[in-house]
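Hi there. Long-time user, first ticket. I'm pasting a complex I've been working with (about 417 residues overall). I'd like to know whether the download I got is complete or cut off, because the file seemed smaller than I expected. Thanks.
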Amino acid sequence: MTENTTQIDPQLTTFEDKIANEQRIEPRDWMPDAFRKTVLRQMSQHAHSEVIGMQPEGNWITRAPTLHRKVILLAKIQDEGGHGLYLYSAAETLGATREEMVQALHDGKAKYASIFNYPSLTWADIGMIGWLVDGAAIVNQVSLQRTSYGPYSRAMIRICKEESFHQRQGYEATMVLARGSNEQKAMAQDALNRWWWPVLTMFGPHDTDSAHTGQSMKWKLKRESNDVLRQRFIDQTVPQAEFIGLEIPDPDLKWNEERGAYDFGAIDWDEFMQVISGNGPCNRQRLAHHVRAQDEGQWVRDAMHAYELKRQAREVA
Amino acid sequence: MNQQTPKRQTIPLFEVFIRSKRGLDHRHVGSLHSEDSEQALEYARDVYLRRSEGVSIWVVRSSDITASQEKDVESFLDPMDDKPYRHATHYKLPKEVDNM
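Hi, the file is complete. Here it is re-exported in full:
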């Protein structure tokens, strides 16, 4: 339909009515191409983030300080893989194949959350990833439980149920460090200093600079704006940091009585743009690792397929 | 099934799943007999959706469903029994910060 057509497209009207009436759009419903493309891009990016996000944590499995922390970390990483699966499946309802999505990731055409391009240098980073990175992800995902694409919304509901454990174990691990020796406390503070600002960029650019926000909000794919979600995260996290005696590395951070919210300093968007366009500390490493894991696992998929063919042949005979 | 005669002992069984409302998962509601899946859809509409119980129906041949066995459940699902740390409640936080 071109813009100067006066004829109303009944399919489009039905679609827009569903959105207006808080109905979810389901896979076989008619939907505008741009909606399909947008939701597909968002689900694929979200799925890739879950999977790539396993790497900074995987870095510490063999070096977790106790067996207890090690099994927790393993369970958490296993969850992240599962969350990737829920999201890939949601994307597959729109006809995208897993192979295409993985290829697009490897070709650099599909993105993932740029937070995972930062390294996990010390054990304290594992606490920060749970407390802050998952904490930020939860704020976003709770909001997305009401997203207008049904399969995406249902994946978010499942994920949110499991995500609370991730944040709590991260905060608890951080609390242990913050209440430990001076060295442990310093390690926790150092990790907070490195992760705080990158975590704030997880919500995306300010509303005034966000390329996709307007249309996504109109389609109710996105329910709340980047700035609203970021503010919510800051407001809930600052008291948590204060409680364990860690200092948020922002000299401009200050409670604003009038707004009933924290004012905070300027985010370094140049760094964000650098990282998102491939020049973060670990971009190449993350992608290369994913490619290698995919390649090295090929023989397993080949063997499973060969076995299945053999089994089928045996059944016929 | 006897290959010689066109008559069958039983009509194939289909499982019926209904999405009661947009946004919700399809849920299993029961089963019915039908010669093919198109017919099964219409039967499902007639027997399970007479009072606007749903907006979408899935039918699938019962024989296409692979199910876990109740008697194997212990060994099959055992891995989750001894992992309390997979639950949020495993992490005891002071009440000031317990709302995460």
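A couple of notes from our side: Residues 10-65 of chain B form a domain with the Ubiquitin-like (UB roll) fold (CATH 3.10.20.520). The mean pLDDT of chain B is 87.
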